Task: inverse folding
């Protein structure tokens, strides 16, 4: 095991468990001292909001000025390369986590626009990176969380291994909740092998035909007239896939253009074609249906049934609306 900080344990009464953890699992054996200190700081009364790098501070609405600001613990605490898991504080920056994992040839594909973003912030916003086409939604990387609830208690959800427990999946429910259901303190994430070869290509070929042509591209970005394609994997495989794109007018490049961060719009992947010829500045993820725009986008309305369900859940988990007030993820 690789460990930077084991953390001090806490009495069983200090932790509420949302499911059985694997007996003797080293990654979840103790609650880190930093986590219990964070719980004490959050306390059990008064409006409170978590501050990270503020890279997505206005997502879902800004908290009121009266809300007390707290910072989640940071640091890569344990990394099991053979088990492909990593345990870190929610306040750890993506840059720090990536640098630590790179030493053993591993990664977690969070891919925020700014690597100064914190792991907890990326998860709380539920923002999957531009490689979602290959690696899936960011929630699928989460194995276990420890968060502080509205009563100031540390709650464990999920399990520390890839073969996780079944039942109520609170750990993944926290992803995208903007900290309104619980304040992330610690996470255990699934790691993946870092690809030995990475190649971006750009051109004016049809990105939708390209999507059908390639085997598991990592990303296909399109602005209505131009496309950027990311291939990752074994060098021979990447070279073979890239050779398919040359006749379609694609050539190697250093990377994609800046991805607009002001607004995100979700569409059916098949509806993206209709964007051709519309006002510029946007960048779409082909195969995913996500459109990044340079201006804010009004959120699509949530069905009445889903809104009612989420309101009821919020009432049960945070009846006094003290966790990240002012933000609304639904």
Result:
């Amino acid at each position: 095991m690789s460990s930077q900080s084991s953390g001090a344990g806490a009495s069983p009464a200090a932790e509420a468990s949302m499911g059985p953890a694997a007996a003797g699992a080293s990654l979840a054996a103790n609650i880190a001292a930093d986590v219990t200190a964070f719980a004490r700081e959050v306390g059990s009364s008064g409006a409170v909001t978590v501050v990270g790098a503020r890279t997505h501070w206005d997502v879902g609405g800004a908290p009121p000025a009266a809300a007390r600001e707290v910072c989640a613990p940071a640091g890569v605490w344990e990394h099991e390369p053979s088990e492909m898991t990593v345990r870190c504080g929610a306040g750890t920056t993506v840059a720090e986590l990536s640098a630590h994992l790179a030493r053993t040839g591993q990664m977690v594909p969070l891919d925020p626009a700014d690597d100064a973003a914190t792991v907890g912030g990326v998860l709380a916003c539920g923002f999957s990176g531009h490689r979602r086409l290959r690696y899936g939604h960011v929630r699928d990387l989460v194995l276990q969380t420890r968060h502080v609830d509205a009563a100031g208690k540390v709650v464990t959800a999920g399990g520390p291994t890839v073969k996780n427990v079944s039942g109520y999946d609170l750990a993944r429910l926290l992803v995208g909740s903007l900290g309104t259901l619980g304040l992330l303190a610690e996470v255990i994430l699934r790691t993946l092998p870092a690809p030995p070869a990475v190649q971006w290509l750009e051109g004016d070929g049809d990105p939708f035909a390209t999507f059908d042509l390639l085997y598991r591209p990592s990303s296909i970005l399109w602005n209505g007239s131009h496309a950027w394609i990311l291939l990752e994997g074994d060098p021979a495989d990447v070279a073979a896939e890239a050779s398919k794109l040359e006749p379609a007018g694609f050539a190697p490049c250093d990377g994609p253009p800046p991805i607009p961060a002001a607004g995100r719009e979700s569409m059916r992947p098949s509806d993206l074609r209709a964007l051709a010829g519309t006002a510029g500045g946007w960048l779409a993820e082909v195969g995913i249906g996500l459109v990044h725009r340079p201006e804010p986008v009004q959120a699509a309305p949530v069905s009445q049934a889903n809104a009612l369900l989420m309101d009821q859940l919020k009432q049960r988990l945070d009846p006094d609306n003290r966790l990240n007030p002012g933000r609304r993820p639904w």
